[in-house]
Design brief:
375 residues; alpha/beta; Rossmann fold; 7-stranded parallel beta sheet; 6-stranded parallel beta sheet; 13 helices; 41% helix; globular; binds ligand GMT
């Protein structure tokens, strides 16, 4: 092919790492001249303004009185096939297996296997939780087998995929990446919009689902407050937001916590922070910790999963045991009370995030994969 391939991207458009990665990937491809078509239920969070080469196709899943559940998967497949035929899409790149890879499979059957290829990127809970539900297991395995290429965001997730689903096909590891022009140290920002001048700022940003282990965030923070004058900034929305407020009240730190809800300037919050906590029960990667490091803000991240593939414990950030609060509190207090250690870890984190996980190096991995799939 002597032109750049046309890429269709499908993801969950709301808050969540897989949607962030898919959106940033699409934006980066578009800036390099690729035509990118987002086929999603609504405009993904990070695509709110016009960008050249980006097209958005909204999937409208119509309900009908006889349906108990709206068949979104079918509406998505229909839209994928239409967009593929109308715009000459070469690759449908779907993020999160269920149901996106199923829709892509159907769309490919509709337009012909030679007309379009399917790349599936597995992000985390599509394998570690959802895909293992009996109702989705066989379908997830089938879709992994049938995609033209499969990627995972960490070696941990690739190994889990092979272990759980017993698949023998090639799975390529392409890690999460960070746009370092956006996520960068910002000494120009006024931190007093978040906390008093003498308070350290601790941040947690997530979708507040049980896997994020919110209780460890708030309990760990309460223990940190015994040693450090600090404020906890909670970014995002989700089912365990109420739990966070209840634990804060029980721990007597309600007045030290601010809930920001969803924000569209996460990069500024992370850059103003002194520390980011992500003690999830598991994380296939843990994108927000990488984004934090790129802002020059060290992170304490769960050791369960793939974070150890970018966190060098004690060197560029810290790993913790999500079941042991002391492994969160001890490094946090050390970092927030020892300026020399803090600067060293922050500098190392910034260097590693940009050098190893900056957009240019990781994007190249995806474009090379596209070329191989189409060859
Ligand atoms: O958070 C999830 O459970 C699903 C997913 C998402 O859509 O937000 O997040 C996963 O994908 C991110 C991007 O690849 C990873 O950085 C997260 O670690 C991963 N979450 C989990 O594994 C829990």
């Amino acid at each position: 092919m002597n032109r750049l391939p046309v890429i269709g991207i499908t993801c969950y458009p709301t808050q969540g790492g897989s949607g962030v990665v898919a959106s940033e990937l699409g934006l980066s491809l578009a800036r390099r001249g690729y035509e990118v078509h987002f086929i999603t239920s609504s405009l993904p969070l990070r695509l709110k303004h016009y960008e050249q080469n980006i097209f958005f196709h909204q999937v409208e899943a119509v309900s009908y009185p006889v349906f108990q559940h709206t068949p979104y998967t079918l509406a998505l497949a229909t839209k994928m096939s239409e967009v593929t035929e109308e715009y000459g899409v070469d690759i449908l790149h779907v993020h999160y297996a269920i149901p996106h890879a199923a829709s892509a499979f159907l769309a490919q059957e509709m337009v012909g296997r030679d007309a379009v290829k399917v790349v599936t990127t597995l992000h985390g809970t599509d394998i570690t939780l959802v895909g293992q539900e009996p109702g989705y297991f066989a379908m997830t395995r089938f879709l992994i087998e049938r995609s033209d290429a499969v990627t995972t965001v960490s070696t941990f997730l690739r190994d889990e995929t092979v272990r759980v689903f017993g698949v023998s096909r090639h799975i390529e590891v392409i890690p999460n990446f960070v746009e370092s022009r956006r996520f960068r140290p910002r000494h120009d920002l006024d931190r007093t919009c978040l906390a008093a001048a003498d308070e350290k700022i601790v941040v947690h940003a997530s979708n507040f689902r049980p896997v994020k282990n919110i209780s460890a965030v708030v309990r760990g923070f309460a223990r940190i407050c015994e040693h450090v004058n600090a404020r906890l900034i909670l970014v995002g929305e989700g089912p365990d937001r109420r739990l966070a407020a209840d634990i804060a009240a029980a721990e007597g730190v309600s007045d030290r916590i601010r809930f920001l809800g969803q924000v569209d300037n996460l990069e500024e919050i992370l850059a103003m922070a002194d520390l980011t906590l992500l003690p999830s029960l598991h994380e296939s990667f843990g994108l927000v910790a990488l984004e934090s490091m790129a802002c020059g803000t060290p992170a304490i991240v769960t050791a369960n999963g793939g974070a150890g593939e970018f966190v060098e414990h004690g060197v560029n950030s810290f790993l913790c045991d999500p079941a042991d609060i002391e492994t969160i509190v001890a490094p946090a207090v050390k970092l927030l009370t020892d300026q020399d250690l803090y600067s060293q870890v922050a500098d190392n984190g910034l260097r590693d995030a940009v050098a190893r996980f900056g957009t240019p190096c990781v994007l190249k991995r995806y474009t090379e994969l596209y070329d191989r799939v189409l060859a």
